[in-house]
Amino acid sequence: MDYKHSKIKQYHKEGRALRTETTINDTGDFGIGRRLCNLPALAQVGYTANRRLLDVERLTADPAIGQAAFTAVATPVTLGSQRASALPPHSTRTQALLAALVVFRLLPHGFRNADLRAHLAPLLGLDPSLMTQGRMTYELRRLRLHGLIARIPATHRYQVTDHGLRIAVYLTRVHNRLVRPGLSQILDDAAIPSPLRRQLDRLTSTVDDLARKHSLIT
Predict the structure, then answer these.
(1) 0.70 exceeded by the pTM?
(2) 15 alpha carbon, distance to own chain's centre
(3) What DSSP string describes 88-123?
């Protein structure tokens, strides 16, 4: 990246760390004199330039991290010879499993198969006795292979991982506080129009007007 007589370069130092260097060949590019007393001001320019570049790179990388995390949960996973089905966030069963994980995080000694059944069944509107041991084993394997829980060595108990807690809290909060109430606001024709419904209707009307202008609809 070049600016007048200055440039920023990046490279992997010793193949292990990304290094960012700003080289200023003419201090006049930044209205700074050449005397040694101006060195602190020049260093600040270089530091600021480095930070701005790294901030932009971080921002562009964040969506990729989020997409990867979402895809990892919403698609099947295979580890060695073991395979687990997806945990689609819109699924009622997935939301129930994630809600249970938030509770289990508070258990200092983890949880067992029976503990999951006792919490999961009511969330699905079922009697715990109707959920078989095999079904619960299936759910535990899904959660474990997706990295949301980990088995405590030499026991039949599990703990919620840090990754699992973040996924569970975020996806359940988005579903309960954004998706469900938002859909209610835009779909309930009998209710007084909410700001969200009014804006959506306005958008729909604007798109329709544009389509009529180009004779796409009548």
Answers:
(1) no
(2) 29
(3) -TT-HHHHHHHHHHHHHTT-TT-B-HHHHHHHHHHH
pLDDT digits (tens, 9 = 90+) for 171-211: 999 999 999 999 999 999 888 889 999 999 999 999 999 99
Angstrom distances, CA of residue 95 to CA of 98, 152, 171, 176, 196:
5, 24, 8, 9, 24
Q: Which CATH class, in words, describes the domain spanning 84-175?
A: mainly alpha
Displacement of CA 92 from its chain's centroid (Å): 19
Domain boundaries, the chain: 2-53, 84-175, 188-213
- Residues 5-14 have pLDDT tens digits of 888 877 777 7
